[in-house]
Amino acid sequence: MSTLVGELKDKVRHRIKATSSKWTYHAVNMLGGLVRRLSRGQTRRVAFLLGDFTHKVLRIRRDLVYGNISMTFPEKNPSEIRRIATDVYRNVAVNLLEVLRLPLIRNIDDVKSLVDLDPGEYLRGTRNGQTGAVMVSAHYGNWELMAMAFGIQVHPVTIIVKRLRNAMFDRSINEMRIMRGNSIVYDEQALREGLRLLDAGGILAILGDQSDPNATNYGEFLGRRTTMFHGPAFFALKAQVPLFVGMCRSNGDGRYTIETRSIDTSDLTFNKKDIAILTARYTRVIEEYILRWPEDWFWLHDRWKRR
């Protein structure tokens, strides 16, 4: 009897979860259809309202956001922390709605109307795009827009992604990621596919500001000890290809600036110590952006949960 009751509970939970995932998928699709009918200015105004509601009414992860900002900027007073947090929530909402507007970006003219992108450093470091490269970025600005813009204007990229729990939404967001020539590879397949891609001259794009889920590597991020993700350094040194940091920051007027910076690997070889050194080098660049323009980073992520 108890076994039957347990099976029924499992079926009910599974049904509720499936129904919830389906409704979430349809709600996001409806929201996407709506924002694609709005102008970009109207979309930003809606996003600001959504961000303020999430921040001040729903208070989603508010304590975490305020705490992380305060610990990173101990010299700032409460009003300055509150201002940064307000901009963080607004930018998160803007990025969400801008991602839903990605299908409106169809060609290079659409890219140039939205972003300022100078690929000179990447082109010089890869012999005008003739060699493979690792592009490291962060949960900063609009990283999804950056991948599409770079893929259209400069060179298609292959993005390492994590599989989302909502399978329908996972499929939908990946369709947007690849609709203009980019490709994706799930993280569990990235080792084999990533090295093959780099050997063939492709660009492998990785978000490098997250913690190491296996908690095997440690270092400092924004002044606090935490786990470090060594994946980008591993790929660059193993495949012997250049490594770049690419960052997409908001200009504050609805446009974005995408910047790439080459990270020196000339004195490094493929070993554990040098992988850690290279990780520290590109992490310092990511930190520079966060410290200068903190409102563009995704502070809602519990970056220091594994210490």
Query: Describe the biggest sheet?
Result: 7 strands, mixed
User: Beta-strand percentage?
Assistant: 5-15%
Radius of gyration: 20 Å
Residue runs with pLDDT of under 50 for 5 or more positions: none
Order of helices and strands: HHHHHEHEHEHEHEEEHEEH
Mean pLDDT: 92
The shape is globular
Sequence of strands across the biggest β-sheet: 1-9-8-2-5-3-4
Give the end-to-end Cα distance, rounded to a whole number of Å. 45 Å
Number of separate structural domains: 2
Q: What is the overall number of helices?
A: 11
Percentage of helical residues?
A: 40-55%
Structural class: alpha/beta
Question: Number of DSSP strands?
Answer: 9
Features:
globular, seven-stranded mixed β-sheet, 15% strand, alpha/beta, 307 residues, single chain, 52% helix, 2 domains, two-stranded antiparallel sheet
Tell me about this structure.
The chain is an alpha/beta fold. It has helices spanning 2-35, 40-58, 62-72, 78-100, 108-112, 120-125, 143-153, 167-178, 190-199, 231-239, 272-292, and strands at residues 115-117, 133-137, 157-161, 183-186, 203-207, 218-221, 224-227, 243-250, 256-263. It folds into 2 domains: 2-100, no CATH class; 108-296, no CATH class. 52% of the residues lie in helices and 15% in strands. Strand 3 (157-161), helix 8 and strand 4 form a beta-alpha-beta unit. The longest helix has 34 residues, at 2-35. It is globular, with a radius of gyration of 20 Å.
